[in-house]
Amino acid sequence: MRLLIVEDERSLNEVLKKRLLLAHYSVDSCFDGQEALDYIRATEYDAIILDIMLPKVDGLSVLARLRSEGKQVPVLLLTAKDSVADKVRGLDAGADDYLVKPFSFDELLARVRALLRKSTPNKANDFRLADLKIDFASHRVTRGEKEISLSSREFAILEYLARNAGQVLTRGQISEHSWSYDYEGGSNIIDVYIRYLRKKIDEDFSPKLIHTVRGVGYILKE
Ligand code: CA
Fold first, then answer.
1. What is the pLDDT of residue 184?
2. H helices within 5-83, ranges in order?
3. How many angstroms is it from 137 CA to the middle of ligand 1?
4. Rounded to an integer, what distance in angstroms lies between the CA atom of residue 161 and that of residue 88?
5. Which of 86, 77, 79 lies closest to 49 in space, CA to CA?
6. Residues with C-beta atoms within 5 A of ion ligand 1
7. Are the C-beta atoms of 5 and 31 separated by less than 8 Å?
């Protein structure tokens, strides 16, 4: 799951990014509204955390602009003021949720999880396919009785495949939703990670669950 943080307070921006990375999200961050619009136009985010008071273009204008462009990405607004008028303006502009500063990080994480549940085809907190089990919150993966340990990049890809199980996904879709701009891989990097995943998830088990769709990409199914 790939998130964008838009927050001009540098220390808060950095702390948010660090904590969300620890929660295993892929995270891009930027510091003003113009930059935010550039990021949002270039990448399909799974959710956006958007401060209202921002330099260049304010958060509500960013939100209005992206909604007018037809983008449905879930948006969590951050604001310094706990005023009803602000809340109403934010929700009217198309925000999905709202958090007043200072907030607890646990609450932010819970709200992000709720937003992601709304926006993904598979909304559950866990996933089962044959004897594969994935717990999205704790990142525990098992096949049958066997605990499978994955790197955060392997997990990110597996989560995206699982959240869209039964659908063919292109390499471009997989990398866009799994990794942030901090991570640059070659064009065959998805194939490399799929190979790692297959070794751990499929090699010693049946049925095989990760399938190649020639000329298109990959699908997770029985
Ligand atoms: Ca601000």
1. 66
2. 10-22, 33-42, 59-68
3. 29
4. 36
5. 77
6. 8, 51, 53
7. no
Asked if the model's pLDDT at residue 173 lies above 80, the reply is yes
The answer to whether the CB of 36 falls within 8 A of the CB of 4 is: yes
H or E stretch at 29: strand 26-30
How far is residue 189's CA from residue 166's CA, in Å, rounded to a whole number? 22
Please give the Cα distance from 198 to 210 (Å, whole number): 7
Q: Measure 195 CA to ligand 1 centroid, in angstroms.
A: 43
Which of the residue ranges 20-24, 70-74, 179-183 has the most confident prediction, judged by mean pLDDT?
A: 70-74
Residues 100 and 82: beta-carbon distance below 8 Å: yes
Q: Which amino acid is at 189?
A: I
* Per-residue pLDDT band at 143 (split at 50, 70, 90): very high
- Which residues have a Cβ under 8 Å from the Cβ of 71 and sit 6 or more positions away? 40
State the Cα–Cα distance between residues 199 and 191, nearest whole angstrom: 12
133 CA distance to ligand 1 middle (Å): 40
Looking at the predicted structure, is the pLDDT value of residue 128 above 90? yes
Angle, vertex CA 189, rays to CA 186 and CA 195, nearest 5: 155
Q: Where are the beta strands (DSSP E) in 37-181?
A: 47-51, 75-79, 97-100, 126-129, 132-135, 140-143, 146-148, 169-170
